[in-house]
Specification:
The protein is α+β, with helices and mostly antiparallel strands. The protein has helices spanning 3-9, 28-35, 51-63, 111-125, 141-149, 178-184; strands at 13-14, 18-21, 69-74, 79-90, 95-102, 131-137, 153-161, 168-177. It is built from 6 helices and 8 strands, in the order αββααβββαβαββα.
Length: 186
């Protein structure tokens, strides 16, 4: 099984409330809605200054190499409300690190947990991955809760530089292993 082939085969993932699909340039306005608000981006990237910056980010970060990157679309509203992606994919180890962001207007609804749980299931059952990691700033309590609700276990805390602000911060790293996941979810 080739991971890239399987990522291409399952580039659309449907959940009860969400559609995870490849990003497209038409998502720029929905993305700018949250990517321009500092309160939505406290622990990730700097806010976008204008729609053109969002379009460039969308093309460069999500569309240039689209496999393993999904728009999170709320099915009822047909609105792109965030992204979830493999920010690192190690083919040899069959592992990945997941990153995500969701529009603050949809926080607290369980949508990110739903997206993450489904991506974990696909990662182990369809993509052939053996482990998944997620890294969160320790101050990001919501991301820590999402990881825990998705059965991920904290494996360590470490200090590192935030790649955007260069500030030294404390991060928590979470992991879930395929064998443990399948044992608990058969």
């Amino acid at each position: 099984m080739n991971i890239l082939v399987e990522l291409a085969r399952y580039n659309i993932i449907e959940t009860p409330r969400l559609l995870l699909r490849p990003l497209r340039i038409q998502d720029a306005e929905d993305m700018y809605e949250y990517a321009s608000k500092p309160e939505n981006l406290i622990f990730i990237f700097p806010p976008h200054k204008n729609l053109a910056e969002t379009e460039l980010s969308l093309a460069r970060n999500f569309m240039e190499k689209p496999l393993g990157k999904w728009a999170i679309v709320l099915k009822d509203e047909r609105k792109m409300i965030g992204t979830i992606d493999f920010i690192k994919l190690n083919h040899k180890e069959k592992s990945a690190t997941i990153g995500y962001v969701i529009n603050k207007d949809y926080w607290g609804c369980g949508l990110m947990t739903e997206a993450l749980k489904n991506l974990i299931d696909f990662s182990f059952r369809k993509f052939g991955l053996t482990s998944l990691d997620l890294v969160a700033d320790v101050r990001n309590l919501a991301s820590k809760r999402v990881a825990e609700k998705a059965q991920m276990k904290k494996i360590r805390e470490y200090k590192s530089s935030n790649k955007y602000t260069k500030e030294i911060v404390l991060f928590s790293e979470y992991r879930i292993e395929r064998a443990d996941y399948l044992k608990e979810n058969e």
